[in-house]
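REVIEWER CHECKLIST
Item 1: Sequence provided? yes
Item 2: Single chain? yes
Item 3: Sequence as submitted:
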Amino acid sequence: MRVAALPPLALYVHVPWCVRKCPYCDFNSHGVGRGAELPEAEYLAALIADLDADLPLAGGRELVSVFIGGGTPSLMSAAFYRDLLDAVAERLPLAADIEITLEANPGTLERGRFAGYRQAGINRLSLGVQSFQDHQLSALGRIHSGRDAVAAVEEAREAGFENLNVDLMHGLPGQTPALALDDLERALALGPEHLSWYQLTLEPNTEFHSHPPALPREEVLWDIQDRGHERLQVAGFTRYEISAYALAGRRARHNLNYWRFGDYLGIGAGAHGKLSVPGLGGHAIERRWKTRQPDAYLRRLHDPRGFVAGREGIDAEELPLEFAMNALRLTDGVPLSDWQDTTGRPAALLLDRLAAARKKGLLVEDAGRLQASPQGLLFLNELLASIDTSG
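Item 4: Structure as written out by the authors:
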């Protein structure tokens, strides 16, 4: 079956370098040390060629958002992003209200760089603060201080950024509820429009996984989460995703497109994309990923094989879980009509796979929506496992 109408399209750009690999990080990031000279011109040329190769997949759609992640994208110059975004605009139509986000770390900023990013066309910043406590930052392997984080927010405001996300972790080594709430209070005092507040997890292939630190007990983690959620509500933030909170009108458009199973092109070393491709070998949807290692990615610029390292179609049996893994992270879920619109598949295929989850009380009883119940949000992995094994 073919997709009747293509979903919205976004662009993800990956910058793989960072000053130092954090012990909890499982992203495609490669530490280069302070003061390293990065191959900006070569990487820019590769990104543009990568985008050119993917353009046929855009299907004439405009971009609703651009997200530049890493690694540490704030290691690159403002001129790099000006030239990149100019190249994107020459190749794809941009929505009039397009959201263009750059991830930045407080410890990698030179004075005045934010102003250059804003002039380049970036209109949203996501600051990787993680904590304002210096001893916690040290335990996480971060290279900035709490004071650096405050200074970064102040400079972003001076540069004209009116849409700012602060990334905060909780459940840190030795963290108490009082320390976790203090981090939230310090973040709220800076007046961000958006907060990503998520629990530290020990991911495979990380230093923390190999040498686990002593983390708070489960009952402490629940206490932190409950008290933090209540505090954010009082401050006017709505929790719209498992770990995302926003003021009214400030939900991250790029992430919403992702969670609603929209399409996105992925360019850069190790970048992933998800595209609706009607008629592709019987599959409606394809995932593809690019060469992971930065040096190997740069060599692909002159390689007739291009930048794609792998691709796979999502068949009908996999679609319900793939769709639900994203949609059910949203606290208010999605209309069931989104299933038909974004996959081109009959509603019965999804509803059959939801039956077991509904019986367990993990879904809201609403014939028109796919939405996790409060219990389902607390036990999202169980909910997804129920969908994966039912039907």
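Item 5: Key structural point noted by reviewer: The chain has two domains: 9-256, 316-391.
Item 6: Recommendation: ____
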